[in-house]
Amino acid sequence: xxxxxxxxxHVGLVTGACFAELGNEVICxxxxxxxxxMFENGExxxxxxxxxxxxxxxxxxxxxxxxxxxxxxxxxxxxIFICVGTPSLKTGEVDMSAIEKSACQIAKxxxxxxxxxxxxxxxxxxxxxxxxxxxxxxxxxxxxxVASNPxxxxxxxxxxxxxxxxxIIIGVSSxxxxxxxxxxxxxxxxxxxxxxxxxxxLIKHASNSFLxxxxxxxxxxxxxxxxxxxxxxxxxxxxxxxERIGHDFLNAGIGYGGSCFPxxxxxxxxxxxxxxxxxxxxEEVRGINEKRSIHFVKRVDKLLGGIKNxxxxxxxxxxxxxxDDIREAPAVYIIKELMKKKVKNIRAYDPKAMDNIKNIxxxxxxxxxxxxxxxxxxxxxxxxxxxxxxxLDLLKIKSSLKKPIIADGRNLYDPGKMKRxxxxxxxxxxx
Length: 431
Ligand code: UDX
Hints:
alpha/beta, 6-stranded parallel sheet, 14 strands, elongated, binds uridine-5'-diphosphate-xylopyranose
């Protein structure tokens, strides 16, 4: 099938490359000329494991191409996926400008039957707005359908998540639209739920908000563990044995970040408010998450007997492992707190994300290894659970630190082992 993907970011590029890999002819559109040149050379402007190989292979096979021209890509395709960004406005509402721009561009090119699919995360009822906008702006008698097909891709495992989804959600208002999308996904052997467009849009926001709620819940329990001496890992394990709760997303730490959870929770709070629904629960989820960084720095400050004028090493800057993405990463907020408390030096290391964070914090020291970051520091703060950090020579680290202090924001290490090695060690919800 001929597909156009509008917006070649983390979602659009994975979607386009995977649909090409499944045998479709895909044109990925982006307005950024510099990005297009990178794509044409098989280069990717962000780190996503395996994506460069997948793009390159499908480019070579001629199933995947890139273009800056929405109109020609839409005219040549049958299914158009809108994958543009829907970031947060300062108010927490969704910035729909890219969606609006795409809709107007798509409308101009509706030369024969097309299916226009919103894959970007959008507020409920966007589908009906999209339908009206296309009807208004499209050529007279244009034949098209609109659908919602939200993505559930996690950064760092996006290709796996696309090829092995837990479920495929298809929100449609016609049989024709349903059969096109069912056909497109048929080779994935995943459960397909066909529903109406509004329900499909809500499934996305509700799913992300629920996952964020699970994280804030376990983080609140971790605070109680720190006060009582219970162990959050054991509590989470005991909870997760109940199939209705499950083990996933019960890892306590310094909070959730990324380009999705923070913006989706804020968006959903705003959507509910606009509809006159009281979603204070989500405001509490956001509130708990926003306090994690301050709480963590306060504990480090206490452990060090005052953090002012100290040198702090930071391991991990990305919002999670296996990505270079620092959007809403806890590290961004923790560094801000450290600077507010007038630490003297910050020495940071991250396997992938340092170039991205340099634009925000140009004046901290960026190191080539966790060992270099630890040299002469009064403490190490572990902020992202990169696998690399699991296999370090910690005794070598200890001898290079001014003080043998590790504050583990992602419960990477075992408290007993760390104390036996002579570290002053704090974690999250563990003593
Ligand atoms: C998320 C959703 O998982 C995905 O389905 C959706 O399509 C996009 O948003 P992503 O943001 O890429 O994916 O990463 P995810 O693995 O969900 O982690 C999000 C944040 O939560 C990270 O900062 C991570 O460190 C944090 N997290 C995750 C926890 O703090 N504890 C957990 O148990 C799990």
